[in-house]
Fold this protein.
Amino acid sequence: MKYLLTAITLLVISNTSLAISIDLGTAGNYTLLATGSGGWYGDLNLGSGANIEGNVGAHNSLELGASATVSGDASYGNLSLGANASINGSSTQEGASFWDNLHSDLRSISDQAYSYTGIDKGYIGTS
């Protein structure tokens, strides 16, 4: 009987769950990303000793503090490296069209996510 109740519970839970995939476009290539549109927006400052596993991007300025490490690629408008900071991947200064396209992807993702509806369950921790 215990196993039957567990199976029924799992069946009910699995039938009430819904996950929708959203294509992140080019933005999906980044672990950290700071961007905008209409000018130079997007500063990403990684503090001393920061260790990022993945790609980073900053429309305006990417600053790595002393001994900060990016284990991935870096895209930026301007780059500043502190003492012993490193990028273990490609390091590319990108132009306005690159950032405009990336911002367009993000705007599309945001609009798509906004269009989804669901049931408001309130804030976490409320009863």
Summary: The longest helix spans residues 96-115. Residues 43-98 form one domain.
